[in-house]
């Protein structure tokens, strides 16, 4: 797919600006009143480089897009880059030095981004954040997690802190078998056994399995939630006596591998997990072939809706928590950051402030709802205060993952992962309750955002070696004793040790 650039015609923009002139004050400190407009009331032109998640870029005639520009009094020249080429094109664009005024980088801590920020290529936005009400309303953790060496060089794309990876379980299958919702990993293992051997769907056939998931070449993929529960922390490090220790060296990591190894040997884990794709794992779960899948909360209705085409009583239930080895309830907390928008230092300060005002308005409830839900009556109806998507919303790619406008315009909503297009209110409310339960116990990644220069170069190769060994242990190609030997050598490895030292140095500075 080729990159597409979108802009409204001059005539359209003049019409939009005239409509807004009466109510636009041009004040940078009040972004809900035409903050992006210049002193004359003319639209502020902004060049934007961003991700294209859907198959097609936003049509210039898209009425929602036009309405957003009218409300923000802007002329947006957007370069949409398909997500499968985004990383490559971003690197080339940054290296060229010809950087659009508002540029999305998907990885805040990419080595190129970090080096450019440190060398002064981007505006340090830290002193300005407090001047914008929607920025100021974001949880401080999001701004902190988007910092590079203690400073915010970009506007984070906000994501909920809660509702990330965990286990979805077929609640209807639990009910069919008279099983309670599992709380411990031992409980869950018994559920896997029952889902595999006790005909949970009642069709009289032995055609179901307990757990589906896949691994990647350098990570545990959608089976990674098993590790996080045993390690009781998301990410690769945990605090032990004030020091960040790689979880791969911890006894809890060995326990996670032992649990998965047993699941593989006893055939309650899909046998082809090393070669499955994520989409195939989801298909097996949605096709009522497997009863447990690791994923975030938000696809709950996507799964349940698909399952109910096979079984009208189907119910994909995101577990609020699972207990790790210590017996504490565990759920992981996200960073709240999904990339960020940088403003190059070539942009004058006055223009930079107008861009900040525009983005502050982009994160408002009004603009976020417009981008995410479309127009009332056309794209959604309201029942009991709950927005219900129409069929037209599906046709226009509103309120789903292919909505490209959400790559820029998205309000922060702690319950965003409770929602999915078409979800009934009862499931939305249940998901919100699960998010509240997780919020009370969730644990953040203590090493998020910490940079090791050695890891930037040597880390990828080390991660692949570690993951290769994990996969072999789970499949029985290597023993747990061999894992012990592997981790002992890893602990003594000079490169691995240096990475750990650098991570701890960065942690102390943070």
From TrEMBL:
Keywords linked to the UniProt accession: Cell membrane, Lipoprotein, Membrane, Palmitate, Signal
Signal peptide span: 1-21
Nucleotidyltransferase among keywords: no
InterPro entries: Bact_solute-bd_prot1, SBP
Membrane is among the record's keywords: yes
Source domain of life: Bacteria
Pfam families, per the entry: SBP_bac_8 (PF13416)
PANTHER family (UniProt xref): ARABINOSE-BINDING PROTEIN-RELATED, POLYGALACTURONAN_RHAMNOGALACTURONAN-BINDING PROTEIN YTCQ
Protein name: Extracellular solute-binding protein, family 1
Species the sequence originates in: Paenibacillus mucilaginosus (strain KNP414)
């Amino acid at each position: 797919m080729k990159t597409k650039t979108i802009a409204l015609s001059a005539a359209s923009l003049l019409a939009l600006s005239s409509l807004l002139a009466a109510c636009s004050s041009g004040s940078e400190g009040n972004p809900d009143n035409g903050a992006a407009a210049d002193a004359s009331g003319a639209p502020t032109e902004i060049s934007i480089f961003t991700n294209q998640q859907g198959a097609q870029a936003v049509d210039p005639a898209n009425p929602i897009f036009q309405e957003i520009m009218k409300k923000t009094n802007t002329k947006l020249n957007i370069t949409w880059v398909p997500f499968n080429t985004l990383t490559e094109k971003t690197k080339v664009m940054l290296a060229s030095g010809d950087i659009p005024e508002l540029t999305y980088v998907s990885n805040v801590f990419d080595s190129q981004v970090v080096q450019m920020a440190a060398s002064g290529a981007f505006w340090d936005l830290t002193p300005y954040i407090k001047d914008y009400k929607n920025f100021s309303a974001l949880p401080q953790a999001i701004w902190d997690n988007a910092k590079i060496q203690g400073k915010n060089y970009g506007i984070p794309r906000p994501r909920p802190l809660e509702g990330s990876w965990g286990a979805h379980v077929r609640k209807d299958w639990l009910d069919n078998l008279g099983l309670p919702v599992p709380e411990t990993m031992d409980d869950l293992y018994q559920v896997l056994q029952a889902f595999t051997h006790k005909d949970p769907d009642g069709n009289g056939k032995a055609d179901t399995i307990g757990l589906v998931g896949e691994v990647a070449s350098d990570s545990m993929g959608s089976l990674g939630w098993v590790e996080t529960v045993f390690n009781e922390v998301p990410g690769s490090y945990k605090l032990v006596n004030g020091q960040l220790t790689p979880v791969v060296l911890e006894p809890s990591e060995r326990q996670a591998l032992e649990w998965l190894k047993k699941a593989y040997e006893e055939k309650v884990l899909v046998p082809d997990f090393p070669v499955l794709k994520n989409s195939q794992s989801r298909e097996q779960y949605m096709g009522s072939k497997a009863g447990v899948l690791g994923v975030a909360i938000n696809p709950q209705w996507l799964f349940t809706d698909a399952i109910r085409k096979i079984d009208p009583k189907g119910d994909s239930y995101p577990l609020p928590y699972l207990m790790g080895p210590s017996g504490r309830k565990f759920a992981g907390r996200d960073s709240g950051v999904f990339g960020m928008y940088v403003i190059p230092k070539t942009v004058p300060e006055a223009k930079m402030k107008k861009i900040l005002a525009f983005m502050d308005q982009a994160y408002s409830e009004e603009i976020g709802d417009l981008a995410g839900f479309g127009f009332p009556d056309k794209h959604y109806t309201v029942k009991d205060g709950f927005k219900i998507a129409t069929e037209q919303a599906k046709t226009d790619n509103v309120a789903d993952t292919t909505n490209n406008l959400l790559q820029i315009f998205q309000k922060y909503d702690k319950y965003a992962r409770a929602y999915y297009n078409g979800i009934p209110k009862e499931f939305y409310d249940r998901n919100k309750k699960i998010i509240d339960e997780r919020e009370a116990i969730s644990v953040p990644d203590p090493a998020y955002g910490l940079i090791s220069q050695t890891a930037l170069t040597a880390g990828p190769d080390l991660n692949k070696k570690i993951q290769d060994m994990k996969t072999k242990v789970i499949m029985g190609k290597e023993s747990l004793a061999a894992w012990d030997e592997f981790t002992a050598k890893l602990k003594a490895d000079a490169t691995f040790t240096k990475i750990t030292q650098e991570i701890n140095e960065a942690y102390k500075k943070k």
